Amino acid sequence: MTEAELQCQIVDALRLLGCTVLVTSARSYRPAQGERRGYGADRGVPDLLVAPPGAPPSVWLGLEVKSARGRLSPVQKALLDAGRITVVRSVTAAIRAAATFRAAYPRKADDPAWGPRAEQMLAQIGEEQP
What we know:
Layout (H helix, E strand, L loop, with lengths): L2 H14 L3 E4 L3 E3 L7 E3 L8 E4 L9 E5 L8 H8 L4 E3 L2 H13 L10 H12 L5
Parallel strand pairs: 5-6
Antiparallel strand pairs: 1-4, 2-3, 4-5
Helix pairs in contact: 1-3, 3-4
């Protein structure tokens, strides 16, 4: 499975769980001259910014999607080492990362029971190999 295919599956699963997901993956294009130019996010920006239901405003989880063989760039490695991004290699890992992130914040009385919904989805898809 390619990283793009995995990313689509992760986005779909997280959105089904009620997460707000912003896709920041950079794209590239070739103008008429044939020179490849990039546009989109700066280097090191994670592929996905995720806000689980009930997360505080302006607080996002940065997920870097990598295939089983995908490697981090030096900038991504530095961000991972600094605790600024989380690397995920499966839908299960992405859901667990979002659930762990959400659990770090106190719940409000009107906050949906997101953790149990995430666990239900994990049980339905079964354990995936990273």
